Structure prediction request, 192 residues.
Amino acid sequence: MIWPNAVRANVKTGHDREVLAAYPYRSACPTSVWARLIGDATDDILLAGYTNYFVWLEQPALHHTLRRKAEEGCRVRFLLGDPDSETTRRRESVEDVALTVSTRIRITLEHLDRLSGVEGVEARFSAPEDGPNHVGLSVFRFDHDALVTPHLARVVGHDSPMMHLRRCHDGGMFDRFAEHAEELWEHGAPAR
Prediction:
């Protein structure tokens, strides 16, 4: 190769190939990215944020979109924190904001009630022992794309950074985060 350093500086060649974008704040990710990822998913949508509250606000007619997705054969899953858990109470104390974590979870549950009975839509609470692992990391997966938010110590989710990942190979960053979310899902209990 004639210019190996120049190529390496401008072309992703390692594990970072799976990182499509990084945002200093989750709220900096355009809502159009979320809409495209939800709209393009055909097999599996897993929204494993602790509250998932914001998606209902940012995505117009999300109930209809998710219902259609499920009717077309896409599995739609929500993994939530238990609003009555000790982890939730601790996080509320840390965040110390008027719109509490438990309220945000309950709002999501209220939205999910509109999808009750739709085959292919499921909701679970993370297991009590997994609560601390769940509250610190949100993984939103759409087939082979994921939006991942590691939550910073004392800020709400929209103020934490986020990465957009796309699966390129076995054992990469996408797989690591997807496996984490699947493990939490497997240990979870039905939300209703």
